[in-house]
Amino acid sequence: MAIKYELIKTCKQSGARLGRVHTPHGVIETPAFMPVGTQATVKTMSPEELKMMDAHIILSNTYHLFLRPGHELIRQAGGLHKFMNWDRPILTDSGGFQVFSLSEMRKITEEGVQFRSHLNGDKLFISPEVAMEIQNALGSDIMMAFDECPPHPAEYDYVKQSLERTTRWAERCLKAHSRPDDQALFAIVQGGMYEDLRRQSAMELTSMDFPGYAIGGLSVGEPKDIMYQVLDYTVPLLPAAKPRYLMGVGSPDALLEGSIRGIDMFDCVLPTRIARNGTTMTSQGRLVVRNAKYANDFGPLDPECSCYTCTNYSRAYIRHLIKADETFGIRLTTYHNLHFLLQLMRDVRRAIAEDRLLDFRDAFFTKYGLFDNEKGF
Amino acid sequence: MAIKYELIKTCKQSGARLGRVHTPHGVIETPAFMPVGTQATVKTMSPEELKMMDAHIILSNTYHLFLRPGHELIRQAGGLHKFMNWDRPILTDSGGFQVFSLSEMRKITEEGVQFRSHLNGDKLFISPEVAMEIQNALGSDIMMAFDECPPHPAEYDYVKQSLERTTRWAERCLKAHSRPDDQALFAIVQGGMYEDLRRQSAMELTSMDFPGYAIGGLSVGEPKDIMYQVLDYTVPLLPAAKPRYLMGVGSPDALLEGSIRGIDMFDCVLPTRIARNGTTMTSQGRLVVRNAKYANDFGPLDPECSCYTCTNYSRAYIRHLIKADETFGIRLTTYHNLHFLLQLMRDVRRAIAEDRLLDFRDAFFTKYGLFDNEKGF
Q1: Residues 6 or more apart whose Cβ sits within 8 Å of residue A97
Q2: Cross-chain CB nearest to A326 (options B41, B313, B324)
Q3: Residue B324: which of A68, A312, A324 has the nearest Cβ?
Q4: How far is A319 from chain B (nearest CA, A)?
């Protein structure tokens, strides 16, 4: 087995788990947030900066790397770790979600998905076997099975048909995966917002021996209380001895609610994407540093933050840089937002260790406000 | 006096000088190249990275900071050093060159220059007094007198009239400068490509007691041999006890030829600007890493370079990042180019110390080729 999950303890106040995922490139303390490095780089950040903020693992995107620069080139380079100079763990998604959300003229068959590249219109094809070939070439520590992620809302019949295909695809992935000793393959539970379908998907996938399980098809436009309901009934269906990964989730409230429900891993482009238009997560809630009211504000982005950005730079300076289209401004907001979420997860882990995660959540929400979709996250 | 120039020795092979400029924010080893941080940031770089490559001083632009965010805001922030988190020396130009090259609808009178902002069309005015007020607010270690920089080619009569006004403006700058104990004011010798006018400008300006002298109006489109001729007759007119600064020059060959002729300081946007389209300076000459031939090249940008970029990343990776519009690619080429020029100046200083700068230049040109305008620098 490429990875090993070590359960340290469960929070007495909630279903939250404190654990460690041991991988070929080091240990991930869980619950963990994974910064997203779509194109073999976490936008604007260096590997050293990611280490300075103590990111244990990053995610990179199979679909994007398949299109550009191509997985064969990365294989030649000695794998993704070497290519991008990152020696800690990497998780690659399967390309499934991106094929459905980014590509054009896609056609799904039992065999796989035919689509046109969103970059240049090239006709391409990804099947479970191709997704494994790509990810084996990339050499990520954790690979994801090729799945279909239906949009929200979707009809019951379609979701059922789709999850059953995802199960068959998962089985093919397991067979096609050529490096099980170096790379762990996670399956993705689908089933939309239907409890019985989530149960069906989880049962089918856990009957096969994957080293970890993800919950997909959430954070796709549904209200957050629906997402939490789905977690409430889906997480208990997953094996306790293996890591559980909630895909595409990264708002502070959802990281807390997911951890409380027993999720171990999260990823999201939210902190890096909002940073690029000058929006930051702070202990006082959402702060849009571009706004005119910060022009003469010489305080840090977040007075309670100890990150590189908040230690050294003012809101006025960061606003100036962003208004002047200076890259360094985006570096500073990106660094801060990623640090904010990684610090939140450190706090979550400590709260689990001390059996007070619900108290921590309540205090967080009271003090910081909800970082919900309505406020822009 | 805010600064002190210490002449360590003169090269026995050339007019080159090894020296130190002591400033309120530390020492500049000369001859020195100054990275340009136009808008209170060296594009894409952090202060820590500039220190890692051992930049002793950076330049920032009065015109740009006057327009945005405004010098009063930077004064409120505690000055430019504090605003941008850079505690080493800063030189600010006077805004003269930018007013003439960037602004619109400018009108020059004896009093100063009226112009419209290239950002928003605002009607603005800079005079020698305003240029001093701005730079005093910025708090740079070295300020530049407000000058007019005529284009090349320019008529003799115009250049003469212009340099005489520049002399009168320099005198007004000296009077208006309110912080001579904290900030050194350099005068700028003009005179175009006319030897007698350069002589006139140098004589007039050196008759006033400026702590340093710049040579302006070069690298404005004239052939390089003309520039070197102007240096040949202008540098000897400048006082040996004070630093000499050649403005706007930064190609490797011109740094060498300028040093040989006794120049102590240089600045140029060249290394940072070309980095942004994937052009790099290497020991093998100009290398455009965007080019398709580097797609599968897993070697460093420059096999003889020891910089952060060349130690950790391949041409293939950097090319991928730049093709994919990833900021980190530009960070890597920018870092390398700045390091290349700073390393060149370290080599120049050592060659002066060992009385072999002409030998060093010849070896450099033989091995590296000329980095001349024809090749894109």
Answers
A1: A63, A147, A149, A216, A247, A248
A2: B41
A3: A68
A4: 9
Nearest one of B88, B90, B92, B91 to B26, comparing CA atoms: B88
Residue with tokens 């790099």: B280
- Token pair for residue B101? 């090259």
Task: Write down the pLDDT at residue A373.
Answer: 47
B31 preceded by cis ω (within 30°)? yes
| Model pLDDT for residues B32-63, shown as the tens digit of each residue | 999 999 999 999 999 999 999 999 999 999 99
ipTM above 0.90 for this complex: yes
| A355 belongs to the catalytic site | no
Q: Any known ligand binding at B307?
A: yes
CA distance A215 to A242: 13
Note whether A99 contacts B: Cβ–Cβ < 8 A.
Answer: no
The label of the residue with tokens 């770790």 reads A81
Identify the active-site residue in A87, A93, A359, A362.
A93
Residue A86, CB half-sphere, CA atoms under 13 Å: how many? Answer: 32
Nearest-5° Cα angle at A80, A77 to A83: 50
pLDDT on residue A371: 58
Q: Is B321 in Cβ contact with A40 (below 8 Å)? A: yes
Q: Is A372 annotated as a binding residue?
A: no
Contact at 8 Å (CB) between A296 and A316?
Answer: yes
Chain B closest CA to A100's CA: distance in Å?
A: 21
Contacts of A325 (CB under 8 A, 6+ apart): none
Cβ of A240 under 8 Å from any chain B Cβ? no
Structure-token pair, residue B200: 């006139």
Residue spans of beta strands (DSSP E) within chain B: 4-10, 17-23, 26-30, 32-34, 58-60, 90-92, 104-108, 113-116, 123-126, 142-144, 184-189, 212-215, 244-246, 265-267, 279-282, 285-288
Q: Which of B317, B321, B337 is nearest to B329 (CA)?
A: B321
Percentage of chain B beyond pLDDT 70 is 98
Catalytic residue list contains B267: yes
Catalytic residue among A141, A253, A264, A267: A267
Say what the pTM is: 0.97
Longest dimension (CA), chain B: 60
Question: B188 and B210 in contact (C-beta within 8 Å)?
Answer: no
- Whether pLDDT at B373 is above 60: no
At B191, list the tokens.
């005179």
Q: SS3 for A117?
A: coil
Which chain B positions have a beta carbon within 8 Å of A41's beta carbon?
Answer: 321, 326, 328-329
Q: What share of chain B is helix, strand, coil (3-state, %, to 5)?
A: 45, 20, 40
For residue A326, list chain B residues with Cβ-Cβ distance below 8 A: 39, 41, 43
Of the listed ranges A205-209, B38-42, B117-121, the least confidently predicted one is B117-121
Name the token pair of B179: 């912080």
Q: Does B317 touch chain A (CB under 8 A)?
A: yes
Residue A173 annotated as binding? no
Give me the residues of B, 53-92, that contact A with CB < 8 A.
Answer: 68-69, 73, 76-78, 83-85
Return d(Cα A263, Cα A227) in angstroms, integer. 13
Task: Give Cα B175 distance to the centre of its chain.
Answer: 25
Contacts of B333 in chain A (CB under 8 A): none
CB-closest option in A44, A85, A317 to B313: A85
Query: What pLDDT is stored for residue A377 in this prediction?
Result: 54
| Residue of B327, B332, B333, B334 for testing the chain A interface, max A β-carbons within 10 Å | B327
Enumerate the β-bridge partners of residue A20: A6, A29
Is A217 annotated as contributing to ligand binding? yes
